[in-house]
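Section 5.1 Outputs to date
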Amino acid sequence: MTPRPEPPPAASLTYAQYSGWACCWCAKSLLDVIGAVSAGIARGREGVHVLDVEVYACPDCAGHSRSRPPERRQGGTP
């Protein structure tokens, strides 16, 4: 299994990517995409301000096919 790549730095993201509306890697809109997944935390700082934010990836960039949704965890609260 290949390691998941790190998300781009927070300062290099567009407003839509930073807001979670677009894929952090290809900038494709996630507003009408099924199967978007968390890509991790984009890290950044501007002076004393921390810009860290959770970013999301489209199914193509995340490695999931559109015909097969990601597996769901078993147990716990739905």
